[in-house]
Specification:
The protein has helices spanning 13-23, 31-42, 57-65, 165-181, 194-197, 213-222, 248-256, 317-324, 362-373, 378-391, 396-406, 422-428, 438-445, 461-464, 559-577, and strands spanning 5-9, 47-55, 77-84, 102-108, 119-122, 131-132, 137-139, 142-143, 146-147, 150-155, 226-231, 262-265, 270-278, 290-292, 297-304, 308-314, 349-354, 413-421, 452-460, 476-481, 493-498, 501-504, 519-522. By secondary structure, the chain is an alpha+beta fold. The chain has a seven-stranded antiparallel beta sheet. Strands 6, 11, 12, 13, 15, 16 and 17 form a seven-stranded antiparallel beta sheet that branches. Strand 15 (297-304) and strand 16 (308-314) form a beta hairpin. Helix 10 (378-391) runs antiparallel to helix 11 (396-406). The longest helix has 19 residues, at 559-577.
Length: 614
């Protein structure tokens, strides 16, 4: 009897070449060859474990739907290959664990011309320079009694029958959404059905002849997503989007950073975006008054079923030419002369498979960010700027933020936008967190949040471009109701934190006259904080306890000063609870000499409700 598991060494070029010819004998360029090149060059694979007679649920579903109807036999059994960094092949026994790191697996289907099935390869900055892959998840395949976790993004090749490139891109996106947003598991045979794709171009659904972008959007809707569909043709000056230019990077980046994969249509082909790489020199991006982290993106990481896993799509053709002149990314940067696309300039359609209940779009969030973080923003001028100006006299962090917003020539604000589940937010900022101020944590703990929240984390340009990731400290964040409609305006803001100031709408879910009221508190001992896990920001930075000297905020000199701050905090909160406008807090915050400041100017008119769009 042939053994179920067989280890094999892959330490030399000859061994790799022989292995590639064995598993893909008919093609010299293929997704299998690209995957092997990625494992050999970028992941440093040195051995493989062959698992025979593997039952793959995706292939088996395809066999049940189509292949069992054919006269020729197609086996329901596959072969799975596991890759390791150890040079010594693993001889599988219940008592012998593998040596070296586990790099993932590939499944080969017995389907002839397109055999590469459901596969997961390790991905991150260890394998792709400066990469952030928010869409990756941990998968745990079993070998005998052993569990082998690997963090990556699902990948497969089209099978030429049930799934072509469009269906494969939907399959990839749906697997990511299952892991990150708990969407139900979607099998390949569920994608190309008459109910999901609507009108077909050829009369029959299987064998598939491919899908248009409109059919893909319809399929995503039928499969339980709430997709957004952007078309390049709709962005010309006379189109419904007005004079807004066609910028696929701006459309996709906030969703990719939210672990929501984005499907691109490029020249009658479809790929799935799942991550990004950041520029090598952060200071090479020019300072601006207010800009998103996407300005630091070098390339978008995509899963292309026809080319290979983790291919890099530069932000434009000019950047492709610049990167192609170097060898940093190797074969991950494709040969544009042979393929459908060169950069994001080739993208003609963008589909975002939003989870159910996420209504507010990233574009709506960008508009609100300007209102809250730009010096001319309505919300900033009416609610934040008066407090920052006063609190900043005693709190250096508030002064730093205030000046960065007001002074664009040597200041500037950088922000990140990502959608998150409320339970994840509370886990990051709960009782176990030592990074965020206690007053802020308690205020957030008592604020009801919707299931999904758009999070805007921001800091100064100088902080964000610091060479040491541990010094890229946040100076605040905003939480927006992702379940709200875009025409809700500033009432979408559920919770906010600027250095020295925290506010919330605790009654937003209750309705009534008090629903939109802001509960504002000064935080006189606030300090910048680090949040690991922000894509393109502090992806791989572990959480460390706060220590003296961690930020530029000096410690309080003695207990008397701390008591004075506590008393001032109490008095300021009393004023706010009395219903007075935020500007009156200034009268209860001591200045440098310990004396109350002069009475503030008369309060400004409260913000009117947002006018409906259109």
């Amino acid at each position: 009897m042939e053994p179920l598991f067989t280890g094999r060494s892959l330490t030399s070029d000859d061994e790799w070449a022989a292995f590639a010819r064995e598993i893909d004998p008919q093609r010299s360029e293929s997704p299998i060859r690209a995957a092997l090149d990625y494992l050999r060059v970028h992941a440093n694979a040195r051995s493989v474990l062959v698992e025979r007679n593997y039952v793959d649920r995706d292939h088996r579903a395809g066999v049940a739907v189509f292949f069992t109807r054919q006269f020729a036999h197609t086996s329901a059994l596959c072969t799975r290959y596991h890759f390791f960094t150890s040079e010594e092949p693993w001889q599988v026994t219940p008592d012998s664990a593998p040596s070296g790191a586990y790099l993932g697996y590939m499944v080969l289907r017995p389907t002839g011309s397109f055999p590469l099935g459901r596969s997961v390869f390790a991905a991150g900055p260890e394998t792709i320079p400066r990469a952030s892959i928010p869409c990756r998840s941990v998968f745990v395949p079993h070998v005998d009694v052993h569990e082998l976790p690997v963090a990556g993004v699902p990948y497969c090749e089209q099978d030429g029958t049930i799934m072509l490139c469009a269906e494969t891109s939907i399959w990839t996106a749906s697997r990511v959404m299952t892991k990150h947003y708990r969407h139900r598991l979607i099998m390949p045979a569920e994608i190309p059905t008459l109910a999901t794709i609507g009108v077909t171009r050829q009369g029959r659904v299987i064998p598939s002849n491919g899908l248009t972008a409109t059919q893909m959007a319809h399929a995503l809707t039928s499969l339980g997503f709430e997709p957004i569909y952007y078309q390049k043709d709709s962005h010309h000056p006379d189109g419904p989007e007005g004079n807004r230019p066609w910028t696929p990077l701006a459309l996709c980046a906030p969703y990719i950073m939210s672990a929501i994969p984005v499907i691109f249509s490029v020249a009658s082909h479809a790929v799935t975006a799942c991550g990004a790489t950041v520029v090598k020199d952060r200071s090479s991006v020019e300072r601006q008054e207010l800009q998103p982290v996407r300005n630091w993106i070098d390339t978008i990481v995509v899963q292309d079923d026809a080319i290979g896993p983790y291919r890099l799509m530069p932000t434009d053709d000019a950047r492709y030419d610049k990167l192609n002149a170097t060898s940093e990314y190797g074969q991950l940067l494709i040969d544009s002369s042979k393929k459908w696309w060169k950069s994001l300039d080739a993208v003609s359609d963008v589909l975002v498979p939003l989870p159910s209940r996420v209504v507010l779009t990233a574009r709506d969030v960008e508009v609100l960010v300007r209102e809250c973080l730009h010096r001319e923003g309505e919300f900033f001028q009416s609610n934040v700027e008066p407090l920052l100006g006063v609190i900043g006299k005693n709190l250096p962090a508030a002064s730093t933020l205030h000046e960065a917003i007001l002074r664009s020539e040597d200041g500037g604000i950088v922000y990140s936008v990502r959608c998150r589940r409320a339970v994840e937010l509370r886990r990051d900022t709960g009782e176990g967190s030592t990074q965020v101020n206690l007053v802020v944590r308690q205020h957030l703990q008592n604020t009801p949040l919707p299931r999904y929240v758009w999070v805007v984390e921001f800091t100064t340009y100088n902080n964000f471009t610091h060479v040491d990731p541990a010094q890229r400290l946040l100076l605040g964040e905003l939480y927006l109701d992702a379940t709200a409609h875009g025409n809700t305006g500033l009432s979408t803001i559920v919770f906010g934190h600027y250095m020295g100031v925290v506010f919330a709408r605790p009654n937003l879910s209750l309705g009534g006259a008090d629903a939109a009221n802001l509960d504002i508190k000064p935080v006189l001992d606030d300090a910048p904080y680090l949040r690991p896990g922000i894509p393109l920001w502090t992806d791989e930075i572990p959480i460390a306890p706060r220590a003296s000297g961690w930020s530029s905020i000096p410690p309080r000199p003695d207990a008397a000063a701390s008591l004075a701050v506590a008393l001032a905090q109490r008095d300021a909160e009393k004023v706010l609870r009395s219903g007075a406008p935020a500007q009156h807090v200034a009268a209860h915050i001591p200045n440098e000499g310990g004396q109350p400041l002069p009475p503030p100017a008369p309060p400004t008119t409260p913000l009117p409700p947002a006018a409906p769009k259109g």
